[in-house]
Each structure stands twice: as C-alpha cells, then as structure tokens.
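hey so i finally got around to running the thing on that chain from the lab meeting. sorry it took forever, my laptop kept dying and i had to restart like 3 times. anyway pasting the input first so we r on the same page abt which one it is
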Amino acid sequence: MTTIAIIGAGFSGTLLSLHLLRHCPAHARLVLIERNSQFGRGLAYATPNANHILNVPAARMSAFHDRPADFLDWLKQQPEGACGGAPPGPQTFAPRRVFGAYVRALLNEEIKRSGRERLELVKGDVLTLERSVSPMVLSLDRGRTVQADMAVLAIGNFPPEPMPVANTGFYDTPFYRADPWVPDALADLDADAGVLLVGTGLTTMDAVISLLDQGHRGPIYALSRRGLLPRRHAGVPVPAPEHEPYPTAVNALARFLRTEADRAVAQGSGWQPVIDELRPFTVDVWQAMPLQDRKRFLRHLRPWWDVHRHRMAAQVADRIDAARASGQFRVLVGRVRDYAVRDGQVEVSYRPRRQDDLAAITVSRVVNCAGPGADYDRIQEPLIRDLLRDGVVRPDPLRLGLEVTGNCALLNRQGAISRRLFAVGPVTKGTFWEMTAVPDIRRQTEKLAEYLAGLVKAAPPQG
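ok and heres what got predicted. didnt touch it at all, straight out
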C-alpha cells in the first residue's frame, strides 16, 4: 500500500484527492488532513452569505475537465432558488457556498465509492514533517502521527500581512481584524460606525456586500495604493477577434493587450474576451517571460491585471456601484501611515497618492483585506517554519510562494528536486502565476494526479 498525504482539504486538496482516486491503482491510499472544521470547502467556499458570488460562470466551474457540464448539471438538480433567482444556466454566477456544497458532495460520493480504506479524512494541524525515515512521518497536534510515502502541500492562502506603520501595537487592539474571513471580522459593529477596509480587491467587495447585508449605514472606506476596483463581467460573452501570437516580454504584452482590447471593442466585442482568451496560455506566457520582466510586472502592472482578470459578477457590481453613488462606499487612494486610538475610535492617517500632506479618517474598525500573505519567510505556520528551517523547501525568487517544478515537485534550499514532496494551489504561484481560480486549480490538480499516479504505478506495492 502506497500512502499519499494531502495537507489541506480546501478546494485544491479535495480536488487533488478526487483526481488521484480516479488515476491511482487500487494499492494507493490517500490521507486528507484538514485543520478547519469542514472538509472540501476552504475559506472562500465556506462563506454562509448567499450574496458572496462566484467570479466565474457555472459553465466553467466543473471539477473535471472531461465532464465540463458537471457543476451546471449538479446545480440544475438543486432545490429551486439555490441561486436566488431564475433557473441556473451556463452564464449563472452561483453563490460560493453552493459551489462549496458541490465540492463537498463530490467528496462524500467518492468516500462512498472508494471506501475509508482508500481515502481517510483526518482533522488536525500538521506541525512537522520528518523526511529522514521511510515512510515519512507527519507529526500532528495532540501527539498524533501519520506515515506517508509522498506528501502534497495544499495549504491554500494565508491571512494578509499587516501594513508597515509607526504604531504596530495597534494590530493587537480590538479595533483591528487581521483576517477578513474570521467570523467576527465585521461582527458587533454599530450600524452607523465608520469602517476601513484595507485593499480594494475582490475580498474587499465581499466585505462591502456583507456590511450592506447586515444593514450597515455608516461610511465604508476602502484604501489602496491605486484605488482600482475589480471590473465587471460582460453581460453576454462575445468571442474576441483573431490576433497574432502572444508576446512574452512584459512591455510588448501590455501593448498587445491594449491594442487587441481596443480592436475588439471597435468590432463590436469587448475587452473581456481578450483577457479571457489569454487564460489557457497564461502559464506558458508567465514561464517564458524573463525573471526581470516578471518582477517588473509584479511591481507595476499586477494591480491593473488583477482588476481586469478577476472580475465581479454583474449583481455584485450593481450593488457596489449603488453604494458608491450614495456616498456610503468611498474609495481612497494612498498608503496608510499610522493608526491612533482615541476615545474608542481609530484615527487613520494616510498619504494620498501624489500628495505630500497626510489626510485622516475616523473609523471604529479596520479590516485587512489586502490580499493573502505570500512571503513564506514571514509566515509563522509551524509546518512552514519547520520545512524552511530544515532546508526542505525554499521560497520562490518572486516571494509569491514556494518554488516548485512544472510537475509541482518542491525544491529544497540547494535547488534539488524532491521525489516525495509536492505542492498545489496558491503556494505554487511563483511558477504558475494564475493559481487561484477554479479552472486553473482543476488543470493543475489533474496533471499532478496523473504524474503521482505514474510514480505509484512504477513503485512496487508496499506490504
């Protein structure tokens, strides 16, 4: 029996498990380890709010490449009103919790089909990983251990990193929430209080929707360096016009996308299909791009790419636009400089973009929605610290995650390729860049499952 341990049972870990069970021989056994209370969902798809909507239409959300309509077919079988309105169709943007239920249903079906002998669920936190023995030994909380011949890190996203400010002690006060997904992030707020959301991406949009849903009347501020909000999806997708091959130099690629977007609009299409058409080639373009160009992209162009690539469903964009038009939701452009707590309120000092003088707002709570932490030298998770300390893994050169090969094998401190340790999902962004959306993770987990299944088939069954 060959045992593969998957550390993390959010979307990427669960999806990898499903694909491994489809590809691996009968003597392969999986152990799916999850620290959180629910298997199969992950933070993004465990939200209870029905107004937290997927950013990809239902027709592209299947867990299986060879069954492209799987999610849509499942969605149509759910009770009426699962998506809140008209019957679901290919362009439906379903609630994220509904997609989480779909992934969980797939996991439950696979457990029934394969049995607990092939797929074991373990609730716990992996603290260390001992590689000097065979099989490896994973030490969990409460003194437990799991033995595995191979292990895959599917650890998802980490909370945002705090902004550098003069008064770092503010981050230990009850006025600050370091993680926008903790249950009390927006709880116990006076309905008329001011709230600052640090960041202007999709997580901030979710927080605004949550505040509106709970009847918040006070001002909602969102602050980021450029003040860019996610764009909205096109009402009706139209194929982009044909164009020349994709450049892989960052300046040439930026010019190319602008030119093609302008041409598509002029021909009656829209800029959205131009971005979407790049999706199947994004990994290839990223890996062909010189390292210096990747750094320049991250430093200068990433915010613009993110708001065009990761868009809002129309029903979400409509509510955001209405909140801005009423003056309740206000976007600030600049950088936080300091926080000061006075008389039960937080005075936030920030420097507006291209200005020398500071400005200030007063709020009752600050919530960090600035995007997941990715610099693994700064992440304090026990397992990550253990692996880095022992030189078993190393951060990628761009500080987006850990360095892996094209087959998702982890590299150690000297750059040697592991034959037993792998990673999937956001931790691999340095190598693959686009590795947060469902279609990207599906593609990656399917390929890794096929690769690991080949290793299992090549190895003699263990006793």
